[in-house]
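To: structure subgroup
Subject: Chain for Friday's discussion

All,

I'm putting the inputs and outputs inline so they're searchable in the archive.
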Amino acid sequence: MPKKILIRRQMAVVSKKQTHVHEFEGSTKLAEQGADRHNHRFAGVTSQVIPAGNSHVHEIVFEHTDFLDHFHNLRKIRTGPAIPVGNGKHIHFVSAQTTVVDGHRHRLQFATAIQSPLV
C-alpha cells in the first residue's frame, strides 16, 4: 500500500465565513531611465479578512499589471491593518513592489477603497 505524503503549504488562514473585501486601483512608481521610463496601472479586489492581532489584513494576489510590451505580477502582498475613516468604515494602506521583469521592478503605494461603499 503506498504511503500518504503530507505536503504543507504556507497559506493565509482565511475565515470560512464571508467577511468583506476592498477594491483597489493605482499606478506603479516610474522605473527605468530615458525613453524606457514608464509605469503600469493595476486594479483588483483583496481577499477576505485575515485576522491579525487586534485588527485584520487582506492579501492581494494579482497576476498582471497593464501591458506595455511587458507586464509585472504582484504576488502575496499583504495590506497593513485597518485604518478607521469614520462611520464604521476603514481602509488599508499597501506598500510593495512588483516582480522583476526586463531588468527592473516598480514600487507601489496605495490605499484601498472602503469596505461595502454602498451599505
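Points worth raising on Friday:
Strands lie at 23-27, 41-45, 50-52, 55-57, 59-62, 74-78, 83-86, 89-91, 93-97, 107-111.
Residues 22 and 40 are 20 Å apart (CA to CA).

D.
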